[in-house]
Amino acid sequence: MRSTAPPPVRRQAARAAGLLGAVALLGVILLLSIAVGAKSLPLADVWSGLLHRDATEYAVVHRMRLPRTLLGLLAGTALGVAGAVMQALTRNPLADPGLLGINAGASAAVATAATFLGVTAIGGYVWFALLGAAVVTALVYAVGGGRGATPARLALAGAALNATLYSYVSAVMLLDTASLDRLRFWTVGSLASADSATVARVAPFIVVGLLVALGAARPLNALTLGDDTARALGARPALIRAAVIVAVTLLCGAATAACGPIVFVGLLVPHLVRALTGPDLRWLLPYCAVLAPVLLLGADVLGRVLGRPGELQVGMVTAVLGGPLFLWLVSRSRVAHP
Amino acid sequence: MLRTLAGGGSPAEQFIVTELRLPRLVTALLVGAALALAGTVFQSLVRNPLGSPDILGFTQGASTGALVVVVLGGSSLALAGAAVVGGLGTGLLIYALAWRRGVHGYRLILVGIGVAAILTGVNGYLLTRAPLMDAARAVLWLTGSLDGRGWANAGPLLAVIAVLAPLVLVGCAPALRMMELGDDTAGALGVPVRRLRLVLLASAVLLVSFAAAAAGPVSFVALVAPHVAKRLTRAAGPNLLPSMAVGAALLVGADLLAQRAFAGHQLPVGVVTGVIGGGYLVWLLAAERRAGRL
């Protein structure tokens, strides 16, 4: 915190203005995501395709681009907010649903369901993904919530879990060529298979998860000061922790069920946003909710442009974009020396 | 069987033993020993029981090299070569990124995790670019399998182990023990810490890469073997030779289990080590936490 910080009222106004700017940016990305693809649409056509049922672009926009964009919006928001609350809860700057293995837990559960239980539809995936995410979230918290937990050790435990779970997923894919064919696209992390049924299926989980996370923002602020201080401020630590774990499970499980495990979005966005808002979760979370889909959809659009005539999966693009940031974070001494 | 090994037996028995079973056994022994040695060196260097090459990105690098060959189409020799190149390239990259006036354990771990996450994304993408049959072959390779391994697979690995194992075991083991006390202490005791670390890292990466080229990146042998060896010998410091023995035994045992456990269905050995390693890992995390070290 700089010593020449502006007075609180002006700072609040600046943050609100910044949030409006972020929403405007999100609007631009949403339009871009509808416009760019195998068949590029000029903006005027996007508009008429959205609004007029008899326009020639109606089918492209409503069947393919719109569900994909909405799914990107939902999944991006979910991952960004989940990353932010996890970083606050574990007091760990390296917490990310992808790096800590939560998305991998959801993947392992989905792979099990797809191969052994014959579940093929997204409607069935969701429940298994939630179950897998819940188990790993609880495990990560049990490991990382202790007093002696350092960022590096938690990251290492997460990486170890990731390695285990992905070796299980590839073993499952090996047993059954049909599920290999389905799952190999899903395990990269992709928005390509989105349709309106998928969006409708996961939206309720993500919305509930978001509401719980946003509701927990203020008490979670208190909790970052330590349990005793939080209690003195009237918060109930156990209840808040449980609420955050439920929120993370809902957000990550639903996002992973719909578009596969995506890393680094939950890490990258809170770090970028914190530079703008500071650590106050009441501002951090809304900013993350708006800017994370900007990143995810931006990566998706980039993948569609770079990968022509096909496309690069969004999970691959975020991994390549987010990796260097992770390395930069690591190179700062605070994290690298526990 | 012993009679056949000694030179007797019918031609059919001769063929089965010397051309099918023996190469597979030798490859398993060598891969297990190489991975265990590399894992012990890594865990000792980064001073963390979880610091194995599967977690730090070296294995993923070898996989990326192999997958590029699968996507572009190439012989199994090219695949093995690409795995070695990928593993070494990743090792260099991680070392360069973690370099800051020397390479420290924790930065190496975290950089390794970051690189591993990037490469996992790249590997997943490469897998979607391959035709389905090639993708199935690639997943089999990625899991780690000893099916159909012959003398051609064991040869290069044997050469690498023959060169590097004496170097590490004889040349570096005493110094490695001192380095576990801390870089400063080791330096004060006359150990050339930086140079030694570079040599050890390079040897470990070479071992992992060649083991991956021979049998695919068999998971968790490098993680588990040093721990088991430590429990068996109850000795302090890196148990290099016992670890190699445990690793070799572990892989041979896992391969036997993989071939026999499900009648009529041979699993690749990597599945078995993955299951064993995963269970062990969860136990390790719990134990570390109970001991207050995590």
Describe the structure.
Chain A is an all-alpha fold and 338 residues long. Chain A is 77% helix and 0% strand. Chain A has one domain: ABC transporter involved in vitamin B12 uptake, BtuC (Orthogonal Bundle), CATH 1.10.3470. Chain A has helices spanning 8-35, 43-51, 58-90, 102-116, 122-144, 151-175, 177-186, 196-215, 217-223, 227-232, 237-259, 265-277, 281-306, 314-331, 333-336. Chain B is mostly helical and 294 residues long. Chain B has 12 helices and no strands. The mean pLDDT of chain B is 78. Chains A and B meet through helix 5, helix 6, helix 7 and helix 14 of A and helix 5, helix 6 and helix 12 of B.
- The number of helical elements of chain A comes to 15
- Spell out the CATH superfamily of chain A: ABC transporter involved in vitamin B12 uptake, BtuC
Q: Please tell me the CATH architecture of chain A by its name.
A: Orthogonal Bundle
Q: Which two chains share the most extensive interface?
A: A-B, 55 and 51 residues
From the 3D structure, determine the CATH topology of chain B. Answer: ABC transporter involved in vitamin B12 uptake, BtuC
What would CATH call the class of chain A? Mainly Alpha
Structural class of chain B: mainly alpha
- Approximate shape of chain A: globular
The low-confidence parts of chain B are: none
The DSSP helix count of chain B reads 12
Total strands of chain B: the figure is 0
Topology of chain B as a string of helices (H) and strands (E)? HHHHHHHHHHHH
Radius of gyration of chain B: 19 Å
**Strand-residue proportion of chain B:** under 5%
Unreliable sequence segments of chain A: none
The general outline of chain B is globular
